[in-house]
């Protein structure tokens, strides 16, 4: 077990693509850090640099305090789980698990013991003689996990290991991975573009955008305190309402003319005129007329999800910015009955439209 | 393998008719003729013939010349198949690793495929010309008293070299395609599991190439058996003393030059059977074993 230090790491591919632009993060011993971001933001590239499958253009990666930039992948003592599992098709499940151990000179008896143990943990004892093509997707996923855990490595690296599974199995395996990682206490890096997976799995998250780290923190920190527009829009489902507008005399004027008076503590700090107001759908509630910021919304669609209800509409009527509210439980009445909402002032997020930073 | 059932309509058979006609006229009919002729003994002018059952076959296997030729053919074929596969695989592995200028390398390696065997033979003749051949000079400079005209080994070495040179390109294309068909992440998983590059090749890459290798092995054996005819005919013509003569070449010399049609038919029937066995073996093996 070990900690991983990533310092000012850069990646430029041979074709000039600047995939990672100076990322620094420390992964503590036993921690599971999730790399989250949209497709093409450089998550896999960063992970593969830690694995040694890509060279590090600049900066440093250290595992257990030792710089590994020039250490070959097999000597970094890490195990990786690939998106398509990458099992050896010509080997039995047993041999798939044993291959890495054999190449490290582990004794036969020890290999058997470790493979059996890993197979028992993952429930794949019955398939040890089979070839990968005789297994279901879920079973292959387990074998891929097994191949990682028999090695007893310093760190696990996961590159979207669940994205080839169906939705139900994905939720199941997600929980299983979390349990397993807790139980073994192995430092892990986990790449995903699924923010729900990231929130539920990660001890901490690093949100990447176009090769840069936008924010690093625990799932709740990112949810409650997004520091940039990008993080605000990326974390949370349904996504945060982001309403562009102009800051004028302590209030925001939106397209279509609607105006919203902001609490002083927000408007006072704004340096620019162009702002984006962020409102999480679940923070909106039916207007109570008390100490809160009130909205008038023309609701045009109600979606009943069972546990919650989503209301879609436009702030201040047609021409105003789109707004979604999520109210708990069942909502009675028709669209036209639902146009007054309120929000507690400190749940409002204000961003500078130019820089994308939180105000 | 997928099996398709056609029900009732004769239309599909109509469409394969031209193909069937070609097979009958150019393959089945001559093959049947060969089988028939192999049971006949003709006089030297081809005027009378006599049905002699298996006499021709008996004569063939009892003939020391034929046995020598058969042994030479088998060794020659195995050397060509092995050498051209090994060289092609090495080149393909290297070319597969290259990122920059990859297509130039590939083109350079592939173009010999377009050279006809007879032309390859002519090029070989020039290179190995006893007086002006640059290969002859090179070998002499290396201390090898190379003499293709009177030394059987030297002559065999020359045609093997030409045959391998010509065949490497085909093997290279297939190996390269096979290598590119191996999942990149499987190779990366192996990089994490095994430090040694050569060990990785023998435990992961090579087994995963097995279907390609096996297919090529059969193709190469067939090539060495039959397609080297053009090379031999333009270079050594079996000389010196029949030491570079393959079975196919002997069929030709006995039949068309020696005018022993019965004997040469018997020889070609044996060749036909060999190819059938090789092909049947390939199909069975490929269907069963080397498929992941
Ligand atoms: N081998 C390569 N050569 C050149 N550019 C590459 C290479 N691999 C990735 N890139 C580029 O680097 C950027 C980051 O790629 P990366 O694979 O890290 O994205 P990702 O965040 O993992 O995306 P996804 O979620 O789609 O897997 C992309 O713009 C991609 O086009
Ligand atoms: Mg990726």
TrEMBL record, chain A:
CC terms in the record's Gene Ontology section: ATP-binding cassette (ABC) transporter complex, substrate-binding subunit-containing
Pfam family, any one: ABC_tran
Keywords, alphabetical: ATP-binding, Cell inner membrane, Cell membrane, Membrane, Nucleotide-binding, Sugar transport, Translocase, Transport
Domain spans labelled ABC transporter: 4-235
Coiled-coil annotated residue ranges, if any: none
Alphabetized SUPFAM superfamilies for the sequence: MOP-like, P-loop containing nucleoside triphosphate hydrolases
Any one GO molecular function term: ATP hydrolysis activity
InterPro entries: AAA+_ATPase (IPR003593), ABC_transporter-like_ATP-bd (IPR003439), ABC_transporter-like_CS (IPR017871), ABC_transpr_MalK-like (IPR015855), ABC_transpr_MalK/UgpC-like (IPR047641), Mo/tungstate-bd_C_term_dom (IPR008995), NA-bd_OB-fold (IPR012340), OB_MalK-like (IPR040582)
CDD domains: ABC_MalK_N
Example GO BP: glycerophosphodiester transmembrane transport
NCBIfam families the record matches: PRK11650.1
Family affiliation: Belongs to the ABC transporter superfamily.
Protein name per its UniProtKB record: sn-glycerol-3-phosphate import ATP-binding protein UgpC
Organism: Pacificispira spongiicola
Lineage: Bacteria, Pseudomonadati, Pseudomonadota, Alphaproteobacteria, Rhodospirillales
UniProtKB/TrEMBL annotation, chain B:
Domain ABC transmembrane type-1: 74-282
Signal peptide extent: none
Entry GO terms, CC: plasma membrane
Subcellular location: Cell inner membrane; Cell membrane
InterPro entries, alphabetized: MetI-like, MetI-like_sf, UgpAE/MalFG_permease
Transmembrane segments: 12-32, 70-93, 105-128, 155-179, 200-226, 266-286
Keywords per UniProt: Cell inner membrane, Cell membrane, Membrane, Transmembrane, Transmembrane helix, Transport
PROSITE patterns from the UniProt entry: ABC_TM1
Biological process terms in GO annotation: transmembrane transport
Bilayer topology term: Multi-pass membrane protein
Similarity-based family: Belongs to the binding-protein-dependent transport system permease family.
Assembly, per entry: The complex is composed of two ATP-binding proteins (UgpC), two transmembrane proteins (UgpA and UgpE) and a solute-binding protein (UgpB).
Function: Part of the ABC transporter complex UgpBAEC involved in sn-glycerol-3-phosphate (G3P) import. Probably responsible for the translocation of the substrate across the membrane.
UniProt protein name: sn-glycerol-3-phosphate transport system permease protein UgpA
Origin species: Pacificispira spongiicola
Species lineage: Bacteria, Pseudomonadati, Pseudomonadota, Alphaproteobacteria, Rhodospirillales
